[in-house]
Amino acid sequence: MKILSAASEIYPLVKTGGLADVTGALPAALAEQGVEVTSLVPGYPAVMAALEKTAPFHAYADLFGGPAQLVRGRAHGMDIIAIDAPHLFDRPGNPYLGKDGKDWPDNAQRFAALGKAAADVAGGINPRFRADVLHCHDWQAALGPVFTRFLGGPKSVATVHNIAFQGQFPASVFAMLDLPQQAFAIDGVEYYGNVGYLKGGLATADAITTVSPTYAQEICTPEYGMGLDGLLRARRQVLRGIVNGIDTDLWDPERDPRIPARFGAKSLKQRTANKRALEARFKLEPGDGLLHGVVSRLTWQKGMDIFAASLDALVATGARLALLGAGETAIENAIFEASMRHPGRIGVIIGYDEDVSHLVQAGADTILVPSRFEPCGLTQLYGLRYGCVPLVARTGGLNDTVIDANDAALQSQVATGFQFSPVDEATLEHALSRAAECHADPKLWRGLQKRGMEQDVSWGRSAAAYAQLYRTLAKA
Ligand code: ADP
């Protein structure tokens, strides 16, 4: 079984978010399921520099404005085909934005090239490779299924990692795509008179997936669907959610070189040394009382404005907070001001720091994730693995991966964390009080930690679900 996976990011070559983690982790996890994955990515400078053992794969005289080569090679154990199109991709920095922080003006051409090359490669433009299924991720690759549907090719999967990003362009872009006129229609790329790349992919793919079952349901509603809910409701029978896994080698509390004291479910006492180190790093008063942790983009999506407004209430429960994050200035300022009001109780590091993120998961008692929407979420999965009890909004992947410590769940010993809904200050503050109550009972708290650590958060199950989907499609 051969799959062509097309995406604009792949860890560790190019990453701006969780998309890269998924496309970077799936090839190895799928290999264990007997599925061979070749990954098609734009030839950004970092991609071209990382490729080894390269061989020419195909030459285009013109690919959306200039000549281009497809080059096949290996990087970090993965089989990669890069689109070496200097006029589109030979630009440093963020893959989508210029130096001014705005989208590149030719993003329609750049990601039309990704979709076109995906369909060409999957369909056997080079007779040495033909995919059984084409798997396209997010709007940047979403024209892949459109080209295969209208011009021929294998069955396709479109995966939504975040429906907030859709790739919408003026109607004039349609002529450039060189598709038959009937593709500019309700079951093609036409979207309110314009061209929608993600819309086109969702209308034409043989299967649609997203990164959790709850998010799969949510995006069928006007509240979360961002305009695509009607289409998704119509295609509900081919839509499903498959929860992301995490890299359990990189995130392993028994072997993590980034934390002062390594520990497992049977040696939770060792965590205390990490808590002391975390307190020191965040200039918090030391103590065994409840210490909440946050590692997050400080944005509206993450509910961080509401969280900032609840910080006095958090301190009033007797708890402390270690927060690592960066994002919107107003939220950063509100959190910083709260830390000035509560020295020793609220510690803040504004910035992005992988090492500190591991220390928070290893030393804090909870990881707080109050997102307004969360397609899957990773930080709560790290928390589960590190005995750092997740306190999360009941939405998307957070709903699917954390079991709320209500009375029934506590009695039947299945609870792994705390959920609250809807996302507002009152419900968040109620959840903070519940966590404080539970933390006061050490046996109960250890139960939450241990059950979390027993959860399977690896890629194994997700890879099996993708493999099954590919097989069903290839047979149909
Ligand atoms: P999203 O992709 O929407 O930001 P996820 O929870 O899926 O949210 O993934 C966020 C990832 O980024 C996690 O690996 C998290 O640890 C990491 N992260 C977020 N903010 C920071 C930060 N300030 N420093 C270090 N890592 C961070």
What does this structure look like?
This protein is α/β, with parallel strands linked by helices and 476 residues long. The protein folds into two domains: 2-245 and 460-475, Rossmann fold, CATH 3.40.50; 268-454, Rossmann fold, CATH 3.40.50. It has helices at 18-31, 45-50, 86-89, 107-122, 138-141, 143-151, 173-177, 197-204, 213-218, 222-225, 229-234, 271-281, 304-309, 311-316, 329-341, 354-363, 379-385, 396-401, 407-411, 425-439, 442-454, 460-475, and strands at 2-6, 36-42, 52-60, 68-75, 78-84, 133-137, 155-160, 168-169, 190-191, 194-196, 207-210, 239-241, 291-298, 320-327, 346-350, 366-369, 389-393, 418-420. Helix 4 packs across helix 6 (143-151). The longest helix is centred in the first third of the chain and has 16 residues, at 107-122. The model has no long low-confidence stretch (mean pLDDT 97). The site of adenosine-5'-diphosphate has 15 residues, from strand 13, strand 14 and helix 16.
